[in-house]
Amino acid sequence: MSASATLIPAAGGKSFTGFTKLCKGLAVILFLAHILVQLFPSAAGYLALIPARTIPFAWNLVTAGYIEQTIPGVIVSIVGLLLFGKVLEPLWGAKELLKFIFIVNLSTSACVFVTTIILYYITQEESYLYTPLSGFYGVLSGLLLGIKQILPDQELNLLVLKISAKWMPSIVAFLSVAVSFILKESMAYLPTILFGIYVSWIYLRYFQKRLEVGLRGDPSDEFSFSSFFPGFLRPILDPIASIFHKLFCGRSARSEGTGHALDGSQFPGSGSIEANRRRERGQRALEQRLAEKLAAVRSAEVTAPPPQQQQQLENDASDKV
C-alpha cells in the first residue's frame, strides 16, 4: 500500500498519537483559555475581539484567536490543531509553524477588525462594534491551506468520501458561506474563516522563506489563486487575480516569486520544480511514518511466538510433568 493512500490513518491506526510538543502546548492554551472564559465570563470582554474596545485593548488582536467560547468550538480547534500540526511541523519545523500561526492569527484578527468597522459605518448597527468575536478557525483554515500546498493530491477520508487535500480550503469556504445563510449565528465565524484562508495564502504564496532554493513564497501554478476554483472558472479568474497580484504583491513577485536566483539569473520552470520538491518531501515524511509503524508491528510479532508454537510449548511442558 502506498504511503500516500491516506493522510489520516484508518481506525485502528494511530491517528491520535505522535503529536508534537508545540501543538500539544498550544492545545493546552486553547483548553485553559476556554475554561477561563467559562469560569469568568467577564474575561471575554478583555480577551475576545470587541471592535469598540480594540483601540485601548489592542492585545485582543492576538488573544481573540485563542478564545473558544463554546465546547464544540474548543474540541474542533484542539483536534484540528493536533492533526494538522502533526503533518506540517515535521516539514516546516517548529519555529516556522509557530511563526505561521502567529502571523495568520494576528492578520486575521486585524482584517476582521477593519471589516466590522466598515460594516458599522455602512449600516450604523452597533452590534458590529460590541459583539465579542473570537475563535481559532482562522488558523485552522490556514493550516489546512498548508496541507494543500505540501500534499495537494493527498486524499483525506471524510466519513464515506475521499477528497483531495487541494480542494479542502475551497470546500470549507463554500460550506461556511452556505451555512451562514441558514444559521445566522454562524455569520460571526465567516469573516474569520475566509480571512484565515486568504492571509495564509498571501503568506505562503509570497513571503514564506524556502531555504532549499533561497527564495520566498511559492510561485507554482498549482498554488495560484485560481487553483481554489474549478477549472472552467480559471480563464475568468486569472486576469482578475493578476490585477490584484500586481497591485499588492508585484514587487515581491518580480524580485523573488518568478524564479530568480540571488544573483539575478532565472531558473526555468522553478515553480514546477519547487512544487515537485514539496510533494516529494511530503511523500518521504509519510513513507517514513508508515515504515516506523510497520517496524513496530513486526517487532511485536517477533517478540510474541505464533499461536501454534505457543500451544506446542505448553503441550511439551505438560508431557514433562
Automatic annotation (TrEMBL):
The keyword Iron belongs to this UniProt entry's keyword annotation: no
Gene Ontology annotations for the cellular component aspect, listed alphabetically: membrane
Region (Disordered): 257-284, 298-321
Intracellular or extracellular location(s): Membrane
Segments passing through the bilayer: 26-50, 70-88, 100-122, 128-147, 159-182, 188-206
SMART domains given in the database record: DUF1751 (SM01160)
Topology with respect to the bilayer: Multi-pass membrane protein
Gene3D superfamilies: Rhomboid-like
UniProt superkingdom: Eukaryota
Keywords for the protein's UniProt record, in alphabetical order: Membrane, Transmembrane, Transmembrane helix
Major place of residence: membrane
Entry-linked Pfam families: DUF1751
Signal peptide: none
SUPFAM superfamilies: Rhomboid-like (SSF144091)
PANTHER family: PLACENTAL PROTEIN 6 (PTHR13377), RHOMBOID-LIKE PROTEIN 19 (PTHR13377:SF14)
Protein name in the entry: Rhomboid-like protein 19
Organism expressing this protein natively: Urochloa decumbens
Lineage per the UniProt record: Eukaryota, Viridiplantae, Streptophyta, Embryophyta, Tracheophyta
